[in-house]
């Protein structure tokens, strides 16, 4: 087993353990009738996060540095031959995702380049299978597989207008970046815009997704790659080649797409110095060769502005060859294991942190509400026992009096409930307002207006103003959302407080809804686009491409941010109500139980002792429940391996009762 496999295996075991612990908690909650619909939904969400968990590794470089070969060497050597096409010159023509979905037969799905004209993003098009060409993969035959994968390298000729209408930049001169013109005045463009390979492979099956990218030019033309796929990858490998050294365009790719602080933390970003076999000169001593490799690694580190220990010299080609032929010496000499090990060490803890962050909040909420319900049940039983004990040796009058008191309590509570129902209708009005602000239709209207303004804008400054306006308005909407959410929270604060004052319900403070996250994302998006435009004075033809880029990426991303905000608001609204609802339900059960007890004693169908004994049993039952819950919680916290601050959050039930 390779190094990556081991790291990945450990991660998968962890993830499965967590999944098991959470599903166990869930079935237990159901068996105890402790969960309500909302809690169930949240646990479901956690489980599906764990189930569909994907780990993205991206390979980025100028063309011909050996990205595809490196992928072949690290992940597909077991296949006995090259899987991804790799050859001199430009080979990979479109971004290619390698993954495995068990429900789908092995295949390559190819998105025609023409779909660029529609302005629809690749992510959106993933939801429309009929837009993709599907080529089945015959996994039994390595030859047929490599043949089918040759599609990734396909190009076609179109005329200049067609290329431009697809937003592809046509280079006027050899030295420029862009699709080059052929002698007959046509432009060679990639045949496909994006490829998804569904390939059965143990790592892919466990959720690994490998992203192979074409050289620089294509990176520049598919903004989604650079704006969303790369920044969200858990590891990005940047590849250089020892034979070409560090060129100007390498540096450009590095700075534009990988080492950009605007793309977030540089966690899991590593540099690979490939093709070191070119330095294996038989006339030189091994130490000399070693020195030369180290020298180049240092050089590379200096150029990229990173520490030399983050540069991994390898030979992808020899690693693949060595693995395929079982030549251990060659594999060792290729130094691929060091890279594999580092890759595992870098990306897996990073990924684990992300999963942990995503899940901890939900789990903490679930556990908190469970503890609350149990605590409340216990409190109710104790109060009830006290009440009954106080009746000991009392005459019928006292018992009558007590019964009246319980009846009064019950009536008062029912009145509060009616008020609560009335508040609910205010609550739903308020949430409607919130949803109106968040409505994607409004955003789409803004998008359409911005598009019109941009298309009629004649100057670069004009374009900038349109973009700024777009961001300003979408931010203003989020501010409105924040205000509305605050109002809802205050409303619920009041309701909670009233129940607590009047009926002794546990003090739960509803959570606030923060829009900071979305504002920050929008800000980041704005900066990225401002940066792209700064210092540019554009020709009309380039304006079109700027507008297109803006709509392909920024607008799509803004829409995604809004969708996320919508989903989060949904969840928030559920959680804000559900503790209240479950408390009310529990309180009702208790009131009924109290009334029933006293009635029976009153009618002398039961003795006081009988009733008390019964209650003791109920109490023991709840205590067992409490213990069982804690055992399960402990298991989950252990797997999540939370630090003490987070654990405090798990235990942090605000409580005044
Ligand atoms: N000598 C040597 N050649 C290599 C090595 N790795 C890749 N190559 C060769 O370099 C050429 C380019 O490799 P690819 O894997 O196609 O490079 P790429 O980065 O995927 O290039 P594009 O797909 O065009 O962006 C191929 O001919 C490979 O055989 C290596 O470690 N040593
Ligand atoms: Mg390639």
Structure in words:
- The protein has 657 residues and is α/β, with parallel strands linked by helices.
- Helix content is 64%, strand content 9%.
- It has 21 helices and eleven strands.
- It has helices spanning 3-31, 37-51, 67-75, 122-125, 142-149, 160-165, 202-205, 216-221, 223-232, 248-258, 286-304, 316-325, 328-334, 336-389, 396-438, 440-456, 460-503, 516-533, 540-602, 608-640, 644-651; strands spanning 55-60, 96-99, 107-112, 133-136, 155-158, 187-190, 192-198, 208-212, 235-241, 269-274, 311-313.
- Strands 4-3-7-2-8-1-9-10-11 form a nine-stranded mixed beta sheet, with helices on both faces. Strands 5-6 form a two-stranded antiparallel ribbon.
- Helix 10 (248-258) links the parallel strand 9 (235-241) and strand 10.
- It is elongated, with a radius of gyration of 32 Å.
- The two termini are 57 Å apart.
- Residues 643-657 have low confidence and may be disordered.
- Bound molecules: guanosine-5'-triphosphate (GTP) and magnesium ion (MG).
- Residues 67-68, 86, 91-92, 212 line the site of magnesium ion.
- The site of magnesium ion has 6 residues, from helix 3.
């Amino acid at each position: 087993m390779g190094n990556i496999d081991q790291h990945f295996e450990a991660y998968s075991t962890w993830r499965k353990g967590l999944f098991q612990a959470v599903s166990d908690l869930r079935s237990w909650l159901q068996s105890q009738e402790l969960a309500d619909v909302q809690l169930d939904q949240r646990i479901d969400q956690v489980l599906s996060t764990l189930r569909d968990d994907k780990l993205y590794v991206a390979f980025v470089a100028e063309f011909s540095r050996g990205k595809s070969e490196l992928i072949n060497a690290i992940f597909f050597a077991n296949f006995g031959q090259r899987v991804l096409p790799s050859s001199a010159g430009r080979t990979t023509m479109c971004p290619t995702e390698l993954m495995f979905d068990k429900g789908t037969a092995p295949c390559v799905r190819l998105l025609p380049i023409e779909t660029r004209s529609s302005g629809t993003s690749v992510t959106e098009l993933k939801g429309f299978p009929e837009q993709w060409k599907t080529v089945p993969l015959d996994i039994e035959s390595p030859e047929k597989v490599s043949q089918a994968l040759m599609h990734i390298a396909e190009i076609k000729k179109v005329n200049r207008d067609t290329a431009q209408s697809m937003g592809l930049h046509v280079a006027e001169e050899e030295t420029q970046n862009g699709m080059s013109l052929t002698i007959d005045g046509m432009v060679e463009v990639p045949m496909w815009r994006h490829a998804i390979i569904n390939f059965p492979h143990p790592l892919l099956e466990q959720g690994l997704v490998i992203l192979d990218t074409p050289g620089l030019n294509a990176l520049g033309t598919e903004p989604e790659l650079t704006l969303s796929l790369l920044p969200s990858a858990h590891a990005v490998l940047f590849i250089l080649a020892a034979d070409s050294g560090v060129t100007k365009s390498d540096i450009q790719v590095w700075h534009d797409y990988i080492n950009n602080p605007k793309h977030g933390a540089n966690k899991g970003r590593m540099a690979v110095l490939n093709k070191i076999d070119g330095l294996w000169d038989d006339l030189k001593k091994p130490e000399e060769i070693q020195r030369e490799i180290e020298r180049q690694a240092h050089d590379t580190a200096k150029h990229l502005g990173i520490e030399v220990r983050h540069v991994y010299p390898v030979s992808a080609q020899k690693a693949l060859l060595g693995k395929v032929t079982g030549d251990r010496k060659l594999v060792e000499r290729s130094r691929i294991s060091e890279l594999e090990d580092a890759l595992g060490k870098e990306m897996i803890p990073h990924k684990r942190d992300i999963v942990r962050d995503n899940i901890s909040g939900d789990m903490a909420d679930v556990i908190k509400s469970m503890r609350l319900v149990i605590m409340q049940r216990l409190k109710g039983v104790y109060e009830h026992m006290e009440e009954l004990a106080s009746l000991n040796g009392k005459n019928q009058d006292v018992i009558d009096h007590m019964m009246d008191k319980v009846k009064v309590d019950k009536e008062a509570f029912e009145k509060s409930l009616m008020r609560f129902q009335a508040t609910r209708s205010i609550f739903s009005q308020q949430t409607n307002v919130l949803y109106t602000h968040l409505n994607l239709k409004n955003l789409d209207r803004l998008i359409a207006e911005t598009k019109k303004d941009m298309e009629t804008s004649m100057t670069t400054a004009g374009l900038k103003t349109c973009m700024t306006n777009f961001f300003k308005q979408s931010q203003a909407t989020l501010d409105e959302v924040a205000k509305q959410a605050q109002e809802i929270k205050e409303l619920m604060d009041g309701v909670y407080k009233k129940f607590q004052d009047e009926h002794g319900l546990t003090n739960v403070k509803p959570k606030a809804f923060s829009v900071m996250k979305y504002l920050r994302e929008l800000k980041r998006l704005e900066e990225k686009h401002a940066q792209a435009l700064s210092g540019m004075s554009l020709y009309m033809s380039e304006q079109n491409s700027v507008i297109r880029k803006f709509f392909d990426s920024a607008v799509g991303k803004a829409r995604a941010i809004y969708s996320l905000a919508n989903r989060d608001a949904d969840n928030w609204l559920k959680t804000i109500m559900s503790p209240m609802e479950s408390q009310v339900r529990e309180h009702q059960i208790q009131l009924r139980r109290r009334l029933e007890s006293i009635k029976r004693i009153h009618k002398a169908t039961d003795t006081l002792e009988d009733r008390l004994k019964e209650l003791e049993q109920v109490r023991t039952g709840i205590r067992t429940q409490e213990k069982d819950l804690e055992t399960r919680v402990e298991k989950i916290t252990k797997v999540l391996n939370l630090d003490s601050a987070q654990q405090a959050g798990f235990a942090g039930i605000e409580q005044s009762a």
